[in-house]
Amino acid sequence: MKTPLPSWLDFFAVPASLLYGLIVRIRNHHYDTSASIQKVDKPVIAVGNITVGGTGKTPLVTWIVKRLRAHGHNPAVVMRGYAAVDPAKADEVLEYHERLHDIDVIVGADRVAMIRAYIENGGQADCFLMDDGFQHRRLHRDLDIVVMDFLRSAFLQRMLPAGWLREPVSGLKRADAVVVSHAGRADPSFANSVVAEHGKEPIAWAAHQWTGLHLFTNSGCEDVSLDWLTGKSVAVRLGIGHPRPVIEALVRLGAKIAMQLDAGDHQPFTREEFDSLATASRNVDGIVMTLKDWVKARELIDFSDMQCPIVVPDLALDVIEGDNELEALLLSVFQDTMDT
Known about the structure:
Elements: H1 10-33, E1 44-48, H2 57-70, E2 75-79, H3 91-99, E3 105-107, H4 111-120, E4 127-131, E5 143-149, E6 177-181, H5 188-198, E7 204-217, E8 220-224, E9 233-237, H6 244-252, E10 256-261, H7 271-281, E11 286-288, H8 291-297, E12 310-321, H9 323-339
Parallel strand pairs: 1-4, 1-5, 2-3, 2-4, 5-6, 6-7, 9-10, 9-11, 11-12
Antiparallel strand pairs: 7-8, 7-12
Helix pairs in contact: 3-8
């Protein structure tokens, strides 16, 4: 799908995109010129993007939490809790608890109120990482990081709904730093495009690496190496914004993709879908899904119906260039706070 809208609505996409762009510019101007931005008592680091769909924010937030913890800090993650009846059980919330077992995750649409309530109730975090926070302008942030996907250049996109931009690329000017995800190396051409809008080169370039596989069956979980996929026939169920990197990783590892089970970003599982998974399991060696999918499926799936394992890749962020510079920028937030 070349735009977020169905193809039969293409005629309306461009006018709607122009209107949406105007609304976004008015909103940003409001925040640029008003005193409605509210500050909380601890440093806030926002990690966001300017496009719809996955750019790699969650792995970067995880990387940041680990780096800050290594320096003695105790961050909490702040997020909206998208596409869930109970925001506290949204897939990304559960994923953070899985990746960072003892992390405090503060969830709610009014992030200012949620953080203040957390502090008043004795929360022990000394800083807050706002996931998907670039457009949430009401909360003051001490550091704004934008993640840009090298595989899906925002510089070639239109505004929603004619393209995938949440806001114009000129919005990069208010970011403190840009991190490029899904990049095997620094790319001068992409860097020049960032400089033209942001004013500075990307501070870091990051790749997403699979470090192993978790195989889930009726007997529990077995950890295996990536070689397990070689020659295996798999079905994929990817309820993520941008499944292309997962598909490409499977192909590189020698898996044969027998079927792709349609799922939208953050899509919850249904009984009918579990029936489809059970049917698919009779014809493949494994069903691949991300951790974001698995944390929703694991409490509901009936493995007695499954004839193959659920395969969940273990994903890690590898900052291939700029890791020291990015770490220094993160730590500067605490120095700036002490200075004020």
